[in-house]
Amino acid sequence: MMFCKQLHKNATSLTIELVKDILNLMSKNAQKILLDFKDSLNRNSVKLLIILVTLFTLPFATILQKNQPLQYNPPQNNLAVPIAKTAQAAEPQIVIPDGILPVYGVHATTLDNLEDGWTTSILYGTITAVDIFNKSPTYNGSNSIAYTVTAPWDELRLTAPAPFDISQYAYLTFYAQAGSPGQLLGVNMLDASGQPILANPIPMSSYGGMPVTGSWTVYNMPIQVFNLPSTTISGIVFKDLNGGTQNIQPPPAIYIDEINFSVQPGEDIPLPSGGAQISGPTTVPTPVMPYYPDISPWVYIIPAIIIGLAIIFQ
User: Fold this and answer.
1) In a 3-state reduction of DSSP, which class is residue 179?
2) DSSP 8-state secondary structure symbol assigned to residue 213
3) Is 276:139 a contact under the CB 8 Å cutoff?
4) Please, are residues 129 and 198 in contact by the beta-carbon 8 Å criterion?
5) Measured at the alpha carbon of residue 67, what is the angle toward residues 66 and 69, in degrees to the nearest 5?
6) Alpha-carbon gap, residue 64 to 182, rounded angstroms
7) Residues 177, 137: contact at Cβ < 8 Å?
8) Which residues pair with 278 in a beta bridge?
9) How far apart are CA 103 and CA 230, in angstroms?
């Protein structure tokens, strides 16, 4: 009986020691597992932190870059290229000689055309009978008036925007060229109310001869021959004096250029070579520097920080 009790006691003690050894071994393994897990967690946390920093800071750096305005668009070849740039200058101005009042031509403020506000009208013929932009022939500049008589005793009237005073001028001057031999016009003026002053216009031939083909004739008609009731007028009239006797089909044009009121004869009025004298903006080459975009420094700083952290916690 005593032997059984002793055997039971020894078995119990052995069991307890075995359980203690098992628990002790399990405890050591658990601690090692926990430590390994902790180390793994720490390493992964650093990596996770680096990933999170990368995800959140790179868009921030991109936003910073987008908020940097660029001053100009880059050339495609990224090299310095000269481009044309208009220099700041005054508006174009016509150089008008002293002592003239331009009606049509290179001295008009409209650049080789009818003076600003002046208009044309036809008395009997068709409105298409006059071309104030005729390109050939021209006496000076790039335009002249081409007037085609389409009805007997027709009139081409040049009318100012408002009556004006010509008391300071001595001549009505202009140049004319015939489209065919025998063409003849008479010249008249319009009073302040727009009515012809003379019943019989003055023939051009009285102050320069008949216009000829192929060359220009200057006409200087003294203001006094028009017997003006007042020095205030409103326009000029060119009237057909052939009366329809030229039966040429199609009817030829007669050309008129450089119409001015002047204190001196027309041939003494200085004319610019090749057209109206103007001054205006000039075009000068301006070099463009190579394109260097204005990049935010955060684009370089943030990746450098991330790489450094990765090396430290590797």
Assistant:
1) coil
2) B
3) no
4) no
5) 95
6) 84
7) yes
8) 94
9) 19
Torsion of CA 42, 46, 49, 53, to 10 degrees: 170
Q: Which CA distances in Å does 96 have to 14, 109, 215?
A: 132, 9, 25
What are the pLDDT digits (tens) for 70-84? 444 444 544 444 444
CB 130 within 8 A of CB 159: no
What is the three-class DSSP state of 17?
A: helix
Residue type for position 264: Q
pTM recorded for the entire structure: 0.58
pLDDT digits 0-9 by tens, 190-238: 999 999 999 999 999 999 899 999 999 999 999 999 999 999 999 999 9
State the distance between the two ends of the chain, measured CA to CA, in whole angstroms: 68
Q: Decide: 267 and 185 in contact? Cβ < 8 Å.
A: no
Query: What tokens were used for 294?
Result: 């204005």
Q: Which amino acid appears at position 177 of this protein?
A: Q
**Tokens read off for 118:** 């002046």
| 3 state SS of 93 | strand
Residues in CB range of 244: below 8 A, 6 or more apart: 151, 152, 153
Residue position matching structure tokens 């680096």:
50
Structure confidence by residue, pLDDT tens digits, 48-101: 666 666 666 655 555 555 444 444 444 454 444 444 444 444 444 556 778 999
C-alpha angle 182-225-119 in degrees, rounded to nearest 5: 70
